[in-house]
């Protein structure tokens, strides 16, 4: 990445760092370096799926009750 004259090098560094993190490049290299049992891989996928579902459920619940007041 080229930094234009007068540009902020720290900002460019942060942008590159964010790209690498979003690409999960480092995580892939680390995971390929060590053998992982298939059952452990399945367990991790199941945990990630549950985490995603909890997040979506929380968003749905927030949207469901948004703007409603508690009337008795």
Explain the overall architecture.
It is built from 3 helices and no strands. It is an all-alpha fold.
In short:
By secondary structure, the protein is an all-alpha fold. It has 3 helices and no strands.
Keywords:
72 residues, mainly alpha, 3 helices
Structural class: mainly alpha
Number of strands: 0
- Major sheet summary line: none
Instruction: State the shape.
Output: flat
Distance from N terminus to C terminus (CA atoms, Å) equals 60 Å
Query: Low-confidence parts lasting 5 or more residues at pLDDT below 50?
Result: none
Chain-wise SSE layout:
Blueprint: H1 9-23, H2 25-33, H3 38-64
